[in-house]
Specification:
The protein is mainly β. The chain contains no helices and 22 strands.
Length: 365
Amino acid sequence: MQTGPVLGVAPSNNFTVARISREFGQRSSVGLLAINKSPTGSRASEYFSNQTYGLDANIGIGNDLTWFNYAGRTQTPGRTGNDYAASSFALYNTDLLRVEGGYTQVGEDFNPEVGFVRRVGYRKPGYGIFASPRPKNNRVIRRFWPHHQWDGYYRFNGQPESGFRHSDFRVDFNDGSSAGLAFNENFEQLFQPFEISPGTVLPVGRYSFNNWSAYANSDLSARLYGNFNYAWGAFYSGRIRSLTLGAGLRSGYRYLLSARYIRNEVDLPVGNFATDLAVLQLTDSFTPKSYLQSLIQYNSRSNQVGVNLRYALMRIANTGLFIVYNSRFDALGYDPDDPGGLLPPPYRRTLDRAVLAKFTYMFDY
């Protein structure tokens, strides 16, 4: 892929991605990945290239155990230290019990510029235990689903950065509905002040906080369905209350209208704030392999509205033609012809707009 320059931001670039993989045995595969980004054009000498290399191996053992592994490395001028990432993860999965555990390590200089990485410079162990007993001859309950998960992030000197422990007990009913109660234990170490909301800054320190969550939903495959989640408890040095409401309406096999609303109210010693997120989605499935989907989302945190339209004409395995339109604009708005703010609202300022088309075809041999 060749891109043009963005004045003051980036030069023109050439991107190359190569991937080869091979499946074998039972749920097993090996693969290699190579990625390159090279600046081109008259200003190419002012920028650096970047490469990423990786390999992966997934091994199926018997009917229930799978071992997932990957390792990667990047090359960036000026970054010659710990420029690697690696992970090993095992999963034992049966109808009654699921047990998983693994370890991930990412160096401080790991820099995949073609793609993204959420954080660097950490070690992360984690595990999960899920049970799903199904009571026999029960007309009400289909299964119980108690589970427990933990993930911890540590610096290379052993100092903890963050952690999350989740304990949950869910019940699935025969009519398709479910309900549950969860307890979450959180830890965050802030090494620098964190502006969690405009004008609300959390100071450096160690924060341990726990909260509860109660949730339920009706049959999500029904013509009319609904769901809710209410969370409450500690949040950093203060308290949080969070409410999620959702609903959907189907008309035959073609149309689905769904909506979701999330409200967070946070009380902290350094300030209070609230956020709202509202989502409206409409899907028209012409056939099992073609659909038109629209989504509108409002976020009070950024005071922005996003619009997404997607048309899909699929063949097999999610291949085919996809056409996407994205638009995002400021809900508060700004009128460039009224810099003094003398005109009455509302205004609307478009922040970005894009039309994308993608076609993929799978060759069978």
